[in-house]
Specification:
By secondary structure, the protein is α+β, with helices and mostly antiparallel strands. It has helices spanning about 1-25, 25-40, 50-90, 90-115, 135-155, 185-190, 250-255, 280-300, 305-310, 345-350, 355-365, 370-375; strands at about 125-130, 160-170, 175-180, 195-200, 210-220, 235-240, 260-265, 270, 320-325, 330-335, 340. Helix 1 (about 1-25) crosses helix 2. The longest helix has about 40 residues, at about 50-90.
Length: about 375
């Protein structure tokens, strides 16, 4: 028991040391004092945009700093409880305290990975676009499964999810859909999901119950604010209006409220059927188009690796980032990081953090072992 507790304590301390290093602890403490003082200035709210930026920074720093302090205190309390329980022969209490240490270790690892979210857009909200590959109903059903997976992941983290656009399949599933995910570091986490996802299963649509392989692509791009200026030449823009399908009532189905923009130089398409108003859908689609152009520029500047570029390649063999095998065996494997999970149902219900954390660490070139060695 004591050996297990000490091993967990060591793991947690390694993560805490890395967190302090990534935060530049003394600098972060001073900066929090500065933004706290700025937040208490009654003149701040005369400039709402600046005030919101200050409050976002304040909340982010406070969460990071208080999170580290809470981890340190919780670990100390758990170790003390184990020592007392062992002295009194209370095995149940000691076991419960070790279980707490395991939970703290998981939290410390999560925070360690989150500290790597330092990209220009990582803190922003994001759009998640899912497109079915070739294969008709099979691929369209798979695309809908992926969309639900990201919705469940976001809900478990307390993020807000809003459906922006959806094109239903002929028999089942979806041809495409876009959701907006709102929450801290939404883009930083979800950007690792861009690419092609492959499903192998016994088809529920095949009377002969044959095994089928389906593909769908995921593309993630950040929401941008008014401070980021994206210029679009009207001559480079093709605009289409269409009747929205699905939920929304008779008004949506009878009027051409849906709006689709195509940026001719890049081929980027952005569409919205979210609102009953064509005017509102036009604004939403334009925001999405600007966000995608911004993300394209980010990738150019950051020279993002080939895994991210998979999000814009053909939806088929050779481009997938993750395989989900439901038959003849049960396995989800990330082909970039080799992370595997033997419970596809849990993954499809939104248990994605391990895949995202490994992909994020790989993208920034900061595998935990390397980072730990550098910190010593």
């Amino acid at each position: 028991m004591r050996a297990d507790a000490e091993a967990l304590r060591g793991q947690i301390q390694d993560s805490i040391d890395l967190l302090r290093r990534h935060l530049d602890w003394d600098v972060a403490l001073r900066r929090l004092d500065e933004v706290n003082a700025r937040a208490e200035d009654p003149t701040l709210w005369e400039k709402p945009d600046e005030a919101q930026a200050v409050m976002r920074e304040r909340n982010r720093l406070a969460d990071q700093i208080e999170g580290v302090k809470a981890l340190e205190q919780n670990v100390a309390d758990a170790l003390e409880l184990i020592e007392l329980a062992e002295a009194e022969g209370d095995a149940a209490t000691a076991d419960a305290a070790v279980a707490d240490l395991k939970a703290f270790a998981a939290e410390a690892k999560r925070r360690e990975i989150e500290s790597l979210l330092s990209g220009e857009a990582d803190m922003r909200d994001c759009f998640v676009e899912v497109n079915a590959g070739a294969g008709g109903t099979e691929a369209q059903d798979w695309a809908q499964m992926l969309l639900r997976m990201y919705q469940r992941w976001a809900e478990k983290r307390g993020y807000k999810v809003q459906l922006t656009e959806e094109s239903e399949g002929e028999q089942a599933g979806i041809k495409s859909a876009t959701i907006q995910v709102t929450g801290p570091n939404a883009y930083g986490w979800l950007k690792t999901e861009s690419g092609v996802h492959r499903l192998v299963r016994i088809s529920p649509f095949d009377a002969a119950a044959r095994r089928q392989t389906s593909f769908a692509s995921v593309y993630v791009f950040p929401v941008i604010d008014d401070k980021i200026e994206i210029e679009i030449n009207p001559a480079d823009l093709k605009t289409d209006t269409f009747r929205a399908s699905g939920a929304g009532g008779q008004h949506v189905n009878k009027t051409e409220s849906g709006v689709r923009f195509t940026h001719i130089p890049t081929g980027i398409v952005a569409a919205s059927t979210q609102d009953r108003s064509q005017h509102r859908n036009r604004a939403i689609a334009m925001d999405m188009l600007k966000a995608r152009l911004y993300e394209l520029e980010l990738r150019k500047r950051e020279e993002v690796n080939a895994a991210t570029e998979a999000g814009k390649t053909d939806i088929g063999w050779g481009h997938q980032i993750r395989s989900y095998v439901l038959a003849p065996y049960q396995l989800v494997k990330d082909l970039r990081t080799n992370v595997e999970k033997g419970n596809p149902d849990a993954v499809l219900d939104g248990e994605l953090d391990d895949f995202m954390a490994a992909a994020l660490a790989s993208r920034v070139g900061a595998h935990r072992s390397d980072a730990s060695a550098a910190a010593r």
